[in-house]
């Protein structure tokens, strides 16, 4: 066996006497690797916990700040709801300051609804597209508002699609028939009479007894006459 050089012997001596070297020697290769993996898991888990804790606190603060903006919205004080009153934040500031929180997400819904009322239809679309909810009726309402914005912009195809999504998401007699009537109107404005009949058929077949049922039958007969079917 070749004799070790003085540099190799020196490095081996330093490694053996270092804390890491002693640990490697005591634990063995497998034990040492296991310890490193365990430490990494602890660090990552701690980081995730701190991130979630920080996000939770941030969302709590955002919800508290949003309370006054919601009040102004309900009172139809739209400018105050949008921009704040000098002491309390408006929805736009909540989106900027608390991005990534549920409060910011919900603020996009409110801002979209406000811009729609103010006839700022493209701005309404921009914010409504940034909103999503697991609450089906709220999400259905957001799809309906998105459809309204598309209608005002003359994009009847996308409007019809949004109304149909609203109807399928709500999936009940209270809201779906009204959304389907809007889908039919959007298709008619697009000039697609056959497509306009389909939402009416849905009402007639699946929503008997609703307030929209008679209207669906009447409009279907009219459209069939226009389509020559």
From TrEMBL:
Q: Which Pfam families match?
A: TPR_16
* InterPro entries, sorted: TPR-like_helical_dom_sf, TPR_rpt
Superkingdom field: Bacteria
Q: Which residues cross the membrane?
A: 30-51
Keyword Acyltransferase recorded: no
| UniProt feature, compositional bias: Basic and acidic residues | 1-15
Repeat (TPR) positions are 140-173
Q: Which PROSITE patterns match?
A: TPR
Q: What are the start and end residues of every segment in region (Disordered)?
A: 1-20
UniProt keyword annotations, A-Z: Membrane, TPR repeat, Transmembrane, Transmembrane helix
List the coiled-coil residues: none
| Name of the protein this chain belongs to | Uncharacterized protein
Q: Which organism is it from?
A: Roseivirga ehrenbergii (strain DSM 102268 / JCM 13514 / KCTC 12282 / NCIMB 14502 / KMM 6017)
């Amino acid at each position: 066996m070749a004799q070790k050089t003085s540099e190799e012997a020196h490095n081996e001596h330093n490694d053996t006497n270092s804390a890491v070297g002693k640990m490697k020697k005591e634990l063995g290769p497998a034990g040492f690797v296991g310890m490193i993996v365990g430490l990494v898991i602890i660090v990552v888990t701690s980081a995730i916990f701190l991130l979630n804790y920080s996000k939770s606190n941030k969302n709590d603060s955002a919800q508290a700040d949003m309370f006054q903006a919601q009040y102004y919205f309900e009172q139809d004080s739209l400018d105050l709801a949008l921009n704040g009153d000098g002491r309390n934040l408006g929805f736009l500031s909540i989106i900027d300051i608390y991005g990534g929180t549920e409060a910011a997400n919900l603020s996009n819904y409110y801002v979209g609804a406000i811009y729609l009322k103010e006839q700022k239809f493209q701005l309404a679309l921009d914010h409504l597209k940034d909103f999503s909810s697991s609450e089906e009726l709220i999400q259905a309402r957001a799809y309906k508002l998105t459809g309204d914005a598309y209608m005002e912009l003359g994009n009847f195809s996308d409007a019809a699609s949004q109304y149909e999504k609203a109807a399928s998401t709500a999936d009940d007699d209270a809201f779906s028939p009204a959304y389907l009537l809007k889908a039919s109107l959007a298709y008619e404005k697009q000039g697609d009479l056959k497509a306009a009949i389909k939402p009416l058929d849905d009402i007639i077949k699946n929503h008997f007894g609703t307030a929209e049922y008679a209207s669906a039958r009447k409009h279907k007969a009219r459209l069939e006459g226009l389509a020559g079917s």
